[in-house]
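Board notes (copied after class):
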Amino acid sequence: MTHISQALPFWLSLLLVPVVILAAALGGWWVLLVPAATWWLFSIIDSFAGLNEANADPTTPDTQLFWYRLITLIWLPIQVALTYGLIWYVQQSDLGTAEAIGLFFGVGVLSGTIGINYAHELMHQRNRAERWLADLLLAMVFYSHFRSEHLLVHHRYVGTGRDPVTARYNEGFHRFYPRVLQQSLVSAFRAEGAMQQRRGRPWWHRTNPFWKYWALQAGFLLAAFLIGGWAGVGLLLFQAGVAIWQLELVNYVEHYGLTRKYLGDGRYEHVRPRHSWNASHKASNWLLINLQRHSDHHYKPDRRFPLLQTYSSTEAPQLPAGYPVMTVAAMIPPLWKRIMNPRVKAWRRQFYPEIKDWHPYNKALNPAPR
């Protein structure tokens, strides 16, 4: 895995950068090139490229993963230059308001599909510099608390009612989205406050990362104002909203309807591969740096993306298509339920035939985990 040729497929995200620049230069309907490329082009490639179910040696050391890691390390300056460069460009060009909004919709798709995803990879690493890169990428989309929520809440409570990000059975995205926006922020803040309390400190202690979150976000807002005025601030906030929407669409897909068995007395079974939806489609895994190998990520959260393992359908549930297709389906609740509800029911029969009453799981009514 030391040769760049093996890592190059995961560098396909860089091709989206000239697509954004081309869209800005051409204007008009061309500003929709970025969502077309990420949602449709990679879905088309998936249909031809097929599946990749091969597993790399999970004990491969970091020293052999330089070309894989590099793409996540260089993305921050690329995203900063692209975003703020386009804020400046919009002020100087003859793009209309609708074109500027369309362009920054594409920027948001890029910062959500690539930027937040890379931040997710980086935040799980032990290297302090990588965690800082993650914080900066998340601050650019004003979703810094995602790090606290993801590490302290989601990974611990996934598949239970205490995890806001686990989409409930028959819960449409239009209901999931406002719920998760509110609950994730609250749960992240409470988790960090509880950590401070365990260390004998008040929540407002300077070591609470929320101070860093707010400071970084304020810095990005100030930079947008200095470059583009209030219009620049509006464009930055708009792309952030699109990016957050993209992230939560993926979160919705990853665990929809999958619940851990309640064992009584506030106890739940341990997280297993069966508690995440997986997809082995090549092109979308290249774009999303193996995020679709989601079961293994929950098994080994700090495992580098090229080493994530895939599982068979006897161990973990499989999606019928990659995330680009499934997130579009999630936006259409009747279509989503027609595709996924029978699969959730089959999953229940396969792994939990002893559970006869699923109502407490469907409505998150089981007692909260201890």
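Comment from the instructor: The first strand starts at residue 262 and ends at 264. The beta strands are 262-264, 267-268.
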